[in-house]
Amino acid sequence: MDDLDPELLALARSARTVTVLTGAGMSAESGVPTFRDAGTGLWARWSPEELATPEAWEADPELVWSWYLWRARQLRRLRPNAGHRALARWAGRARVQVVTQNVDDLHERAGSEVLAHLHGSLFAFRCSACGAPFPGALVPGLSPVDPEEPTRERPPMCPVCGGAVRPSVVWFGELLPEGALERGADAVAEADLVLVVGTSGLVQPAASLPLIAAGRGIPVVEVNPEDTALTPHADWAVRARSAEALPRLLP
Ligand code: APR
Fold it and tell me: Where is the active site (predicted)?
């Protein structure tokens, strides 16, 4: 990784309010597959249409439930990486607002507070019929088990209406959680510095958030080994892996 621009380092050290928008690349070095990296991307094995849509749930709730349960179990074995930990430490020096597209809990397990999970969480559940929240502690098999290939399992039944319980993850075509995008937009608008880490910037409306900063002249730093759709809107492009770059960028 090249040396970081001294002006960027000074900016990172002086920023008082920072908003960090993260995507799947933030968790890649913890072993969580990204969505679109060729070959390793999660969708390389399953197509989004098969699993992350309301239609897929209607067609085969057991398949969709089993896949999400398997992903949640996988995560129980994984750990936050040095990038997650660097962001958590930074919160001791500045007001750091994390807005993530990730449905994992690695930011929280590293010690960060997450202002918004724009695409929901693997560890939150609700009834697919009446919407009643369903406690994760009651989800069978969400204990640390050796994640093998997904087995077919029936989703739990809602104690309120008997409907099938689903993961509270935002599926393609669904609305984001109430207020999440607004909190993200406010956090970007009030920041001295915006970091965009590990996202291809291809999925709206999350990808519109860095443009709010760019439109207000708030410095935007992209941390990603590759160019993305957001690169043209960034003031700095740190072409490196987040677990390597963030500990060197952040105080
Ligand atoms: N450090 C930083 N960035 C990385 C790393 C890494 N170690 N490894 C990969 N990346 C970058 C890739 O270059 C890519 O730009 O992370 C990005 C991952 O992009 P996607 O796989 O498209 O993931 P993301 O942008 O989070 O997808 C957004 O799409 O499928 C939906 O809901 C899903 O939240 C997801 C959304």
Answer: 119
